[in-house]
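Could you please consider the sequence and fold appended to this message?
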Amino acid sequence: MPNGSFPGIFDREGKTMKTFETLVRTETAPDAEELVDKIRVLKERHRAIILAHNYQIGEVQDVADLIGDSLELARYAATTEADVIVFCGVHFMAETAKILNPSRKVLVPDLKAGCPMSDMITPEEVDRLRRENPGAIVVTYVNSPAAVKAKSDICCTSANAVRIVSSIPKETPIIFIPDQFLGDYVQRATGRQLILFEGFCPTHMRIMASDIDQARQEHPGAFVIAHPECQPDVAKKADVVSSTSRMATAVRENPAQKVVVGTELGMIYRLQKENPDKEFIPACSSCDCANMKVNSLEKILWALEDMSPEITLPEGILKDARRALDRMIELS
């Protein structure tokens, strides 16, 4: 190593190199308050808003203009007048915002924030299911790629899936993709027989019925909430099965002082903040989504400084996926 210098390391774009010596001498990590102030200035300059899903880390939730579930965020994205949307969630959520606002710039703090469930379904799989089930309507959970939404008849979220399926004539067969467990929940709620794809959320898959049993034993009288992405035997043991935003409402309205939370761990931050007098017990202490946790204040700041990474989609996919999302919003 020349002159005894330290090895070089990449900057945040992974392009240029800086030596460790230079980094230490010239850059000190800003504190959270300083980051928030810089973000606020850039938001005003670019006429930007920050949307964050309920599973984001606390500091991201705190800086967001809106925190919500997929349906709330989609509705807001469809009506915002902001020039720039910074979407703190996972990739398919940012794609949804772009589909609903094709003329606006949609940024994501980290392109690596993917979704394993979304990756389980492809446009080719949709074509196969249509061939095997002629005349069927394709109802697609928003946890899916834009190219899959473009192949769909209508989209849904966990908050409105029952309503969407119920709106379809009973004699019409329904292909429900990609989440088999949300699909199972909808079948039980509507009495409809759906053609299910075998996708699932690896995070919710880790919550076991035995976890709920143990939590009830250790916390008698606790209020148990669960997400419909959980396995059916988990959902059946919960007092309320709902989207994350409806969970927030249910917890506010329920008098129980202890709440067992059967969903991704990030939800507890919002619930605790809104209900400081209540105790929240995770049904599964290891059920955090690594993809949801890659965003940070630093990455939000960098996105606003660089106006990237930006979500872009082909015109044809934008148009066809928009039709499926618009149908969902009209029925929600």
